[in-house]
Amino acid sequence: MDLSVLQLFIEVMRQGSFAAVARDRNIDPSSVSRAIATLEKELGIRLFQRTTRKLSPTEAGTMYFVQIEPLVEEIQRAKDIATDVSGQLRGTLRVTASVPFGLKCIVPLLPDFAALYPDLTIDLMLTDAIVDLIAERIDLAVRLGILEDSTLIAQHLMQTHYRVCASPDYLRQSTPLKLPKDVKEHNCLRFPLAGFQTRWIFKDQARNLSEIPVNGTLTISNMTALQQCALSGMGLALLPNWLIDEDFRSGTLIDVFPDYEVTATDFRTAAWLVYPSRTYVPLKVKVFIEFLQQSITT
């Protein structure tokens, strides 16, 4: 029985769609359908009920999935171990991160990593959605903020924090900003997540907190776009340090409240390297984790 067909079957069960698996693998959906039909013929059972609108596993298909999934995972684990023993990194490393963090912090490092491991294929999925690592066959994810409790394993990558920033031109032309409460009189460039749109939280050196309502004429769902608008002088923006530290150094953005900590949700923010909980972590994942931890500084 072909292992690749079994892996296709498991992915279809997890994602519930031939088309989704085909997109993930960059193949034609008909190829997935034919592979499943071949498996059904070999087993002598129907694994899925197919209609024009829905794909549903049969009872036999569900039972087969429950039995075969751990076996296929064990076979893949054995393959990973055998490959790692050789000391040569081959195969595909699937990584996911948010679009802004990936573009700013990961993509610039890829040439050096590829030069170190030329036989390893890197599949980088940049998305602001929280990806199901198991269903999407992701080896490693970069997650930002406070981690939810889960069965995933997490390693610390870097501490993060937020700053209120603006361009020098904006600050010259607008009402002076001396205290956090002055933000209420300014145009704030907002991010459409809970907290970010309505108020920013400041903490002074005496650890006193103040919640300041924010208003503005522009809301954008991408932090890199907010950064560009701040650089263009459109208003104040609350952005993470990893995105704007270079702008601070060059003077194209100004840290408006350097004596305050600031956030929209929680002051304890960080970037984490997250991977599926399993007894064996492939060498390719270990190597990439070490590379990122050594290359990315706070």
Automatic annotation (TrEMBL):
Keywords (A to Z) from UniProt: DNA-binding, Transcription, Transcription regulation
Keyword flag DNA-binding: yes
InterPro entries according to UniProt: LysR-type_TF_proteobact-type, LysR_HTH_N, LysR_subst-bd, WH-like_DNA-bd_sf, WH_DNA-bd_sf
GO terms, molecular function: DNA binding; DNA-binding transcription factor activity
SUPFAM superfamilies named among the record's database cross-references: Periplasmic binding protein-like II, Winged helix' DNA-binding domain
Residue ranges of every copy of the HTH lysR-type domain listed in the record: 1-58
Keyword Cytoplasm in record: no
UniProt record similarity statement: Belongs to the LysR transcriptional regulatory family.
Protein name: HTH-type transcriptional regulator DmlR
Organism: Acaryochloris thomasi RCC1774
